[in-house]
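Hey, I'm writing a tutorial for new members on how sequence and structure tokens pair up, and I'd like a real worked example in the thread rather than a made-up one. If someone can provide the structure for the chain below, I'll link this post from the tutorial.
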Amino acid sequence: GWASLGTAYVQQAAITGDPTYYPKARGALARSMQIKPERNAAALTGMAALSAAQHDFPRAVEHARASQRINPYSASNQGILSDALEQLGRYDEARDELQRMLNLQPGVPSFTRASYAFEVRGQLRPAQMALKRALDLASRPSDQAYCLYYLGELAWNAGQLDRADRYYARGLRLDPSYTSLLAGRAKVAAARGQVQTAVQRYDEVVRRLPTPTFLIEYADLLRSLGRDQAAERQEAVVTATQALFEDQGVDVGAEISLFEADRGRAEAALQAARTTWERQRSTEAADTYAWALHVSGRDEAALDFADKAARLGTQSALFAFHRGMIEKALNRSAAARASLLRALDINPHFSPLLVPRARTALKQLSTR
């Protein structure tokens, strides 16, 4: 019925990166609620999925809880609820809801979420094991590709290029249309210094799926190669895409904040980070806010947010880099050196734009 259609539109938006599916989803779900205003668990779950996709996590929790009261046995509703609580920084509650999901339906969606719950706490072995469990349970090629993508990301985030590339390549053989896997192979090629291959792959990625994440990754690579005009073209698309997403009610503040901050546009970075922090309380949102505050010259406040970002023990090269640069600005040289070395130890290829900055900062610190 209408609830299934609405939920399908939300999924379509995720697959295509096209936010114009969101109003269609809203329309179909509203129609479902009109037809069945009472005890409509499916429509409430659909509305929770839509709110989460638009990064309105408080509302996603509200809808998912309402659905849960009607039908406590929906694994997909549990998944949405757990995700939204995670984004709000309510990690213990999220873990409880995820456990309920695992009890209801131990499958690909629940084990991939379990993997993220481990990863965000810095527990990389269990994270990998949960993904391998998901892969074992996946019967459809598209589900297998999904698991392989996240196995690739785990390896990439730990600086394991060869392992990451093997996972991405395996996934692409199973599902050539899965653009995120191609983006994975693009960043591996860039890290290996295979510039031409990396650029060709990114060209294809942003042609297929011009989301802010991929456009920014590509622009960062082009900037690092000194191809500023080509980078500016991608950056113009980022700005246009941001407007399109915001018109359809999607908050892309976190990605845009880092993008603006890395280009020295402090005011825009701070505004986007503040908006995101108001709606999210995740470790990632805290890290984004820390970096925007640093670029704005507010390093004491930035360090408070870097502490919030570190509160679960996440192994993130980006978090460690941001923290190190904040500590350097505060003249905490020993701490800064330790953080920057940790960033490069976790993943020496974490960003084509920022790795050189980390190395330069370390040189400056060694002469202090």
